Amino acid sequence: MSKSILLIGTGPMAAEYLKILTAKASGEVTVAGRDDGRLAGVKAAFPGVDTFRLPPAGAPLGRTWDAAILASGIPDLAGDLERCLAAGIPQVLVEKPVTTDLTRLKRLADLAAGKGARVRVATNRRHYGSIRKLKAILAGESPLGASFDFTEWLSRVPKAWESHEGGQRLALSNSFHVFDTVEHLLGAFKKEAGFHGETGAVAWHPDPVVFFGYGKAGTTPVVYGTSWISPGRWAIEVMTREGRYRLAPMEKLAVLRHGTLEWKEIPLDNQVDLDFKPGLAGVVGEFLVPPGGGEALLPDLNAYLQMATRMADLCGYKAAP
Fold first, then answer.
1. What is the pTM of this model?
2. Helices and strands of the chain, counted as H and E runs
3. Is 223 helix (H, G, I), strand (E, B) or coil?
């Protein structure tokens, strides 16, 4: 379906969206940004798109589009969403974390509802070939238990994030991918007991950096254990009678069967994850299909708020930074 699409952002993530939008001839694409040099770079790399510099914060966009995709920097996402809603754009896809301020996130959800806008959050891992495959397996094999780890490599956190919510609330801005995937596979997580500690161990992250606990995701018992000041990686394991399934890295799926200690990788139908940023083509495809016309994997702002609230509780965060 051809649409007029506004893409806000000129960084690497915006470029990934442009690769998909231009490859699939999704419609008239206009790119807006805050840096003239980056906008010129976009125009050079994607000559078929229009570009313009965003007006100052709080100023109106000046026109409307059929849809908008927000891939701006973390501190700008919420304000850009407000501007799109004010411009009457009826369909908006916004990158994570939208905002890590849960009070503001609630206001945005209410604003979108009041405008009658269809806003979705780009939880791209739900569209990974590996996670699609495991979701299908679990439809036929009952999960007995699961575990997850959202250890972050602090040395790889962008330096710029240390001065804003991206780093200061890292669990919501980045680790959330793991939590969202657990809930997508198994159901909403209800913490039954938990520990979070080592507050102050990382100068730019004022909250805890060690997290252990257990609960249930849907009806499945789940344990978690994470320390950002120890080695580790993102990982999810789900146990059934037939096998133990592992997402580590999350782009791949491996299984451990009875009578062996050898993890075997499960082949995936995921060429689209190799052609584009994993999961993103699925996100764009779902977003651009009219409501009720295809898959519905992406959460709206209210569902996203509920998930973020559960993870904030797990991590010892308050509603606002």
1. 0.95
2. 11, 14
3. strand
CB-count burial class (<10 Å; 0-12, 13-18, 19+) for 139 = exposed
Q: Which residues pair with residue 145 across a beta bridge?
A: 239
* Domain limits, the chain: 3-95, 128-269+301-315
Question: What type of residue is 126?
Answer: R
Separation of alpha carbons 247 and 231, rounded Å: 17
Q: Are the beta carbons of 194 and 211 closer than 8 angstroms?
A: yes
d(CA 253, CA 208): 30
Residue 159 per-residue DSSP state: G
Does an H or E element contain 205, and which?
none
Q: Could you tell me how far CA 304 lies from the centroid of its own chain?
A: 10
The domain covering 128-269+301-315 belongs, at the CATH homologous superfamily level, to Dihydrodipicolinate Reductase; domain 2 (3.30.360.10)
Question: What are the pLDDT digits (tens) for 30-71?
Answer: 999 999 999 999 999 999 899 999 998 878 898 999 999 999
Please name the residues in contact with 267: beta carbons below 8 A apart, sequence gap of 6 or more: none
What are the pLDDT digits (tens) for 77-120? 999 999 999 999 999 999 999 999 999 999 999 999 999 999 99
Q: Is the peptide bond before 97 cis (omega within 30 degrees of 0)?
A: yes
Tokens of 93: 């896809």
- What phi and psi values does residue 151 have, to the nearest 5 degrees? -60, 130
